[in-house]
Design brief:
Bound molecules: 1-deoxynojirimycin
Largest sheet: 6 strands, mixed
Strand order of the largest sheet: 11-16-15-14-12-13
Number of strands: 26
CATH architecture of the largest domain: Alpha-Beta Barrel
Radius of gyration: 26 Å
Distance between the termini: 60 Å
C-alpha cells in the first residue's frame, strides 16, 4: 500500500492529463487583453551586469514581459519575478532563460568535446548537473542543445554542437533533452531545453556565421532535421529559429519548416522563440520592409516568441485591429508559451531558493561530473612510438605555450557564469600530478604576441627538461558565435614553439585546446604525440594531466573530420560516391592536383594507450524480410597491457537504390570499457529505422536491397559483412 502510494506520488506531472493544462491555458487566455497577450510573446535581455533594467521591472509590473534572458542570480531573478507576480493583473510568471551551453558555473567540456566521448550518458550527466545549478538560481530555460549538424570547421559554432553526423547528433540531442528536462520538467533541478537553431544554420556558406545556406530538401530531411526530430520526440519544450535563410526564405519566417514540418508532420506542441533580434533582421534579409511586415511574417510563419527586438509588441496591436494578422495567430502563440510555463510548474514554483543556489554552484559533485566528462572527451590523435603516457618519474618537465596558463581557454566560448579562476591551468595540473618534479613553465605572452624571445625560451626550457609538453590551439574567443576562421592553422607562432621544443631532442608531446577541427599536419610531423583536449572545462586540466601521465587512458573519438587543408572543406565521411570516385591511378576522378583528397583524421578516429581487435562479425539473419530487424554482433578484445575504452562503430552502405546514397552512414555505436585481456560481444540492431531512407518521392521507405555493413573503431577500416533485405536482387 505504502509502495503503491509512493509510486503514485512519484508519477511525473508530465503524465498528468494535459487536458488540465489545456483548461488552465484556455481560462487564462480568455481573460487576457491583446497587450497582455503580446507581452507573453516578448523576451527581453538583461543588462551586461546580469541585472534587470528599470524598464524590465516596469514591463513586468504591467504584465508585458513573457520571458527574459541574461538576468542572473536568485536575488535579481526573484526581484523581477516578484514585480510580475505582485503587481500584474493576471500574475503570469516570467520565464527566465540563459545560454547555459556546457555548464552554468561548473563548466563542462564544450559540446563538440562531450560528443567525442561517444557516450550519451556523459552528455546527459553534463546537462543534468548544468540544469541543477542553473535552476537553483531561478533559470528555467536553457538555450541548449545546439543540434545543428556542422560540416564546415571554419564555422566557429561547431564548438557548440555534436559534429557532422545526424545519427550521433540525434543520440546526443536526446541525451541533452533528457538531462535538462528529465521525466518531469517541473521538478526542482529540471529546466526546459531549447533545440536550436531551426534549421540549417550550420550550413552557412564559407563557414561565415549568419551566412546564407543552400540545402536541398533531401539533405535537410536526412542530415539537418534528424537531431531536431530526436529532440522533439524526447520532449523538448522549445526550439529556436535560426538566423540563416533557406531556399530564399529566412528560417525566422519559414512556414515550411516552422509550421508544415514542426507542427504538421512532427506535432510539436511547445513554442518557438526567434534567435536574438532575428525577427527584426527580416528587414536586412530583404523580406520585410519594416517592423510591421517582419512581425507579420514571423508570427504567421510560426515564431511564437520574439527575442529582444520588439516588432511584435510594437506592431501587432495595429495589425490585429486592422485584420492584417488574425487574432487566432496571436492566441495560438500565447497558448504554446503558457503551456510550457504550466508544464515547467512555473505558476506553482516561480521563485528560486537562494539556499539551494549557494549549495549547488560549483559543488563537489558538479566538479566531479565535469572532471569525468573531461577525461572521457579526450581524443588521442597521434602517439608515435608510444611516447605517451609520460613517466611519472620524470625529474624535470617543461610546459610550453601561452595556453598552458590560459584558464579561460579551458572554459571555451559560451561558458555561462563559469570563471577562469575556478579552473586550474594545465601547468598547475602538471605540477600537481608530479609533486616531486621540477616544472619549468615557458608560456610567453598571448597567442597573438609570441616573440623571438618566447621561442628561444621554449627551446631552453625543453633542453633543460627530461620531456616537454607543448600546449597549443585556440584561445576561448577564437571559436563560438561570430568567430569563423578562414585558416584552421595553429594561430600565431605556436608551431614555432613546438618546433623549438622538438629541436631539443627530448620527448615532446602536444596538448591541443581548440573549439574546432584544426589543420594539424605541420604539428603532427613535428611532435610524435598529440592529445586533443578541446576546451575541457573547469576540471579539464586535471583530466589532461591524468591522461599525460597514464592515470587515465584517452578513449574519445572524433565526431568531426579533421581536414588536411582548408581547401578540402567541406569534407565529411558520409559523402556520396559520385560517378568518378577519387582514385590514385586515374587522373579523371574526383580529387585535387595539389594534395590528397583524404582527411587528416577521419570521423570516428581516436587512439588509446592499449590496442583493440575486432573479430567474429556476424549478421543474423543475413537475408532479412522487409520490416525485419537484423542483429549484428562483433567481439571486441583489449589485447594491450592497459585497461581502456574502445568505441565500436557500425556503418552501413546501401549498394544500389533509385537515389544515390552515402558511402557510409553511422547506424550504431558503443563505447566499451575493457580491462587488459578482456573481450566482449557488442550487439547492434538494424531495423527499418536504420535501413530505410528517402526514396525519389521523398517518402521514407526501405525497399528491398543489399547493404554493406562495416564495423570498426573509426569510419575508415574495419570488418565488413553483407545484409540483404527482401531477397537478393
Ligand atoms: C544568439 C545565438 O545565435 C543563440 O544561440 C543564443 O542562444 C542567443 N544569441 C541568445 O544569447
Amino acid at each position: 500500500m505504502i509502495a503503491l502510494l509512493a509510486l503514485i506520488l512519484s508519477l511525473p506531472a508530465a503524465a498528468a492529463p494535459s487536458a488540465d493544462v489545456e483548461a488552465r491555458v484556455q481560462e487564462l487566455l480568455s481573460k487576457m487583453t491583446l497587450e497582455e497577450k503580446l507581452g507573453q510573446l516578448q523576451q527581453l535581455d538583461g543588462r551586461a551586469d546580469g541585472k534587470a533594467s528599470p524598464e524590465l521591472f516596469d514591463l513586468a509590473r504591467t504584465g508585458r514581459l513573457g520571458a527574459v534572458l541574461g538576468v542572473l542570480g536568485s536575488s535579481e531573478i526573484n526581484a523581477l519575478q516578484r514585480a510580475a507576480l505582485e503587481n500584474s493583473r493576471l500574475k503570469i510568471p516570467i520565464l527566465f532563460g540563459f545560454d547555459v551551453i556546457h555548464g552554468y558555473r561548473t563548466i563542462f567540456p564544450i559540446p563538440l568535446a562531450l560528443a567525442s566521448s561517444w557516450d550519451p550518458g556523459e552528455v546527459e550527466s553534463a546537462a543534468r548537473v548544468s540544469a541543477r545549478e542553473a535552476e537553483a538560481t531561478g533559470l528555467r530555460w536553457m538555450f541548449s542543445p545546439m543540434v545543428d549538424i556542422a560540416r564546415d570547421p571554419r564555422w566557429g559554432r561547431v564548438a557548440e554542437g555534436a559534429g557532422e553526423d545526424p545519427y550521433l547528433g540525434s543520440a546526443m540531442a536526446r541525451a541533452w533533452v533528457r538531462g535538462y528536462q528529465g521525466d518531469d520538467p517541473s521538478q526542482p533541478g529540471r529546466v526546459a531545453a531549447c533545440a536550436k537553431h531551426w534549421v540549417g544554420y550550420g550550413a552557412a556558406e564559407g563557414g561565415r556565421d549568419y551566412g546564407t545556406t543552400e540545402i536541398s530538401e533531401r539533405t535537410l530531411r536526412e542530415i539537418y532535421f534528424p537531431p531536431f526530430k530526436a529532440a522533439v520526440d524526447a520532449g523538448a519544450l522549445t526550439l529556436m529559429s535560426a538566423f540563416n535563410d533557406l531556399d530564399g526564405v529566412p528560417s525566422t519566417a519559414n512556414r515550411f519548416t516552422l509550421t508544415d514540418v514542426l507542427r504538421g508532420e512532427w506535432k510539436f506542441s511547445g513554442f518557438v522563440v526567434s534567435d536574438y533580434n532575428a525577427v527584426h533582421e527580416l528587414i536586412n534579409h530583404g523580406v520585410a520592409q519594416d517592423g510591421a511586415q517582419a512581425a507579420a511574417r514571423a508570427l504567421t510563419a510560426g515564431v511564437d516568441m520574439e527575442m529582444v527586438s520588439r516588432d511584435y509588441a510594437q506592431n501587432l496591436p495595429e495589425l490585429v485591429r486592422a485584420g492584417a494578422v488574425p487574432l487566432s495567430a496571436v492566441d495560438e502563440a500565447v497558448r504554446r508559451i503558457l503551456r510550457v510555463k504550466f508544464e515547467l510548474g512555473l505558476f506553482e514554483r516561480p521563485y528560486a531558493d537562494p539556499a539551494r543556489e549557494d549549495a549547488e554552484l560549483l559543488s563537489a559533485a558538479s566538479r566531479a561530473a565535469a572532471r569525468r566528462a573531461a577525461e572521457r572527451s579526450l581524443v588521442l590523435l597521434q602517439n608515435d612510438g608510444g611516447v605517451l603516457p609520460l613517466s611519472k618519474s620524470l625529474k624535470t618537465v617543461a610546459v610550453i605555450g601561452p595556453l598552458a596558463v590560459d584558464r579561460a581557454a579551458l572554459l571555451g566560448s559560451w561558458s555561462g557564469e563559469g570563471r577562469p579562476a575556478d579552473a586550474a591551468s594545465v601547468a598547475d595540473a602538471v605540477r600537481a600530478a608530479l609533486p616531486g618534479a621540477r616544472v619549468i613553465a615557458s608560456t610567453g605572452g598571448a597567442i597573438g604576441s609570441l616573440s623571438d624571445a618566447d621561442i628561444q625560451s621554449a627551446s631552453e626550457a625543453a633542453r633543460a627538461a627530461d620531456a616537454a609538453i607543448v600546449v597549443l590551439g585556440e584561445s576561448a574567443d577564437m571559436s563560438g558565435e561570430a568567430s569563423a576562421r578562414s585558416s584552421l592553422d595553429l594561430p600565431g607562432r605556436q608551431l614555432e614553439l613546438a618546433r623549438a621544443a622538438a629541436a631539443a631532442g627530448k620527448p615532446v608531446v602536444a596538448v591541443a585546446l581548440n573549439g574546432r577541427p584544426l589543420t594539424l599536419a605541420p604539428l603532427l610531423s613535428t611532435v610524435p604525440a598529440v592529445l586533443e583536449a578541446w576546451q575541457p572545462g573547469t576540471e579539464g586540466a586535471a583530466a589532461v594531466a591524468a591522461a599525460l601521465f597514464g592515470d587515465a587512458n584517452p578513449g574519445g573519438h572524433l565526431t568531426m573530420t579533421f581536414p588536411r587543408s582548408t581547401g578540402q572543406i567541406p569534407i565529411y565521411y558520409d559523402h556520396k560516391n559520385g560517378g568518378r570516385p577519387a582514385s590514385e591511378s586515374d587522373h579523371f576522378t574526383s580529387k585535387y592536383i595539389d594534395g590528397p583528397w583524404t582527411p587528416q583524421f577521419p570521423f570516428g578516429w581516436g587512439l588509446s594507450y592499449t590496442t583493440f581487435t575486432l573479430s567474429g562479425l556476424s549478421v543474423t539473419p543475413a537475408v532479412a524480410a522487409p520490416g525485419a530487424t537484423a542483429i549484428v554482433r562483433v567481439e571486441v578484445s583489449n589485447d594491450g597491457a592497459r585497461a581502456g575504452d574502445a568505441v565500436v562503430q557500425l556503418y552501413l552502405r546501401r549498394r544500389f537504390a533509385e537515389v544515390t546514397r552515402p558511402v557510409a552512414e553511422l547506424k550504431g555505436f558503443s563505447r566499451v570499457g575493457l580491462k587488459s585481456g578482456e573481450s566482449r560481444v557488442v550487439e547492434f540492431a538494424l531495423g527499418p529505422a536504420e535501413l530505410g531512407f528517402l526514396g525519389a518521392d521523398m517518402k521514407f521507405s526501405e525497399p528491398p536491397g543489399d547493404y554493406e555493413i562495416t564495423v570498426g573503431t573509426s569510419s575508415v577500416g574495419g570488418l565488413t559483412a553483407r545484409l540483404t533485405v527482401g531477397g537478393r536482387r
